[in-house]
From TrEMBL:
It catalyses: P(1),P(3)-bis(5'-adenosyl) triphosphate + H2O = AMP + ADP + 2 H(+). Residues 129-160 form a coiled coil. This is Bis(5'-adenosyl)-triphosphatase. A motif (Histidine triad motif) lies at residues 102-106. InterPro entries: Bis(5'-adenosyl)-TPase_reg, FHIT, Histidine_triad_CS, HIT-like, HIT-like_sf. The record marks Y122 as: Important for induction of apoptosis. Residues 5-117 form the HIT domain. Keywords: Coiled coil, Hydrolase, Nucleotide-binding. It is an enzyme of class 3 (hydrolase). It holds the Pfam family HIT. Its cofactor is Mn(2+).
Amino acid sequence: MESESFTFGPYKIDPKEVFYSTQLSYAMVNLRPLLPGMRFNPVSDVFAIRDVKRFTDLTGDETSDLWFTAQKIGRQLESYHKASSLTLAIQDGPQAGQTVPHVHIHILPRKGGDFEKNDEIYDAIDAKEKELKEKLDLDKERKDRSMEEMAEEADQYRKLFI
């Protein structure tokens, strides 16, 4: 990997930060820990090698390889960090919180109690993506939907695949 060249949008990545690669994707450690005060950062990201801005712009082979790589990396990180679960997340486009226009999957090994509320992980990802600027507390604005509302939406989505 020392001789390979990696980029993340406009940024050149030092091959020393990359710990796994295939012909189509690579995995690297993060610059900043997700949680303050952590010496080791259990979060890693898997990137498409080709500079692709949006998930839907990946080829079929790139999509398969990216997720296969995320699965492989996640399995190993979960075991290494003695975690019991994984959060896998993609922020696809600026309105989804993507701050660097390059497809990547966040992989976060999870343990019971690592966040007071499980969904706080998404706020933490958003904060990390924005270079740890002030994060929004999205839970304040969230309201549970009824089963009927959710079923109606699911029916609409099913029609897209007929």
